[in-house]
Amino acid sequence: MKKTFMAKEKDIKHAWYLVDAKGKILGRLASSVARILRGKHKPLYTPHIDTGDNVIVINARDIAVTGKKLKDKIYLSYSGYPGGLKEMPLCEMLRRNPALVVRLAVKRMLPSSPLGRRLIKKLRVYADEKFTHQAQKPMKLSI
Known about the structure:
Blueprint: E1 16-20, H1 26-38, E2 54-58, H2 69-72, E3 74-78, E4 85-89, H3 90-96, H4 98-107, H5 114-119, E5 123-125, E6 139-141
Parallel strand pairs: 1-2, 1-6, 2-5
Antiparallel strand pairs: 3-4
Helix pairs in contact: 1-4, 3-4
C-alpha cells in the first residue's frame, strides 16, 4: 500500500536566496519569489506546512513593468473613515517606496491565511544593492 508523504517540521531545512530585481518584470519576479517562499521548488512540498525558504530581493528600485501599468495601475488604501480612500499610481509608489511595490506583489500571490502571513515574514526587500543579511550567506538565484 502506498502512503502520501507529509513533511514534518524536523525534516525541513530553510535556505536563504538572494534575488537581483534589476531589469526584471514585476509580476514574473513576484511569482517566482512566491513559489520559493511557499516551497514549491522542493520535492517535499506540503501545502499546509511552511516548507519554503527565505528570500532577499535587492534593487527593487530598478524593476520593470510592461504596457501602460506605470500610469494605469492604482494602489488603493482605505482608512475606514468617510473620505479616507487614497489612490496612488504605480509610478508614484515606485518613487516613494519601491520595496513596498515588490512586497505587495509577492504578498498578493501568497495564500490569505495564517500560513501566508507567516510566509511573507521570510521576505526581505531592499531598494538598492545594500542588504544586512551577509551572515546568512544567501545563494544567488537567477530568475
